[in-house]
Amino acid sequence: MRVYRAGHNDVDGAGEMWLALTNETAPELKPNLDWWLDQTHRLIDMANYYLWIAEVDGKMAGFVDGIMMNDPSTGEMVQYGRHMYVKPLYRNTGVMGALHRQGIRTGKEWGARIFKNTVRSQELPMFLKCGYQPVETVLMRMR
Q: How many Å apart are CA 77 and CA 69, to the nearest integer?
């Protein structure tokens, strides 16, 4: 397995995984892949954004992305996770752990002591097992 920092040429593959993530965890939503691709292409040129890809035998197996920002409410650099996903074929093989560790390493390099991640309700148990604590509640109402 290889974990590498993605470039523009990797965004389409990451976008396919993002769409799979959204369809798997929130099938009631109507994701717009074109918007995600456009946003990610713009973000990837920003120094405070990261997109890491895990590759197994030359194939994309998963990704993690996020952004570093100074948070006025904490007075600290905070790492905001955007997405983490591993294709079903590569689950329970160490890919998620490798991506998670790389994401955390990236935050530490930036001096972030706080890692915030918005997760779907069904994903909460996995994050609690990794040492995360719920600190905020995000509510959503569909119209």
A: 6
Residue 84, strand partner residues:
64
Q: Which domains does the chain have, with CATH numbers?
A: 2-129 (3.40.630.30)
pTM of the predicted structure, to 2 decimals: 0.89
pLDDT confidence tier of residue 129, bands split at 50, 70 and 90: confident
Measured in Å, how far apart are the chain's first and last C-alpha atoms? 43
Helix (H) or strand (E) holding 7: none
Dmax (CA) of the chain: 44
Of 21-30, 32-41, 118-127, the least confident: 118-127
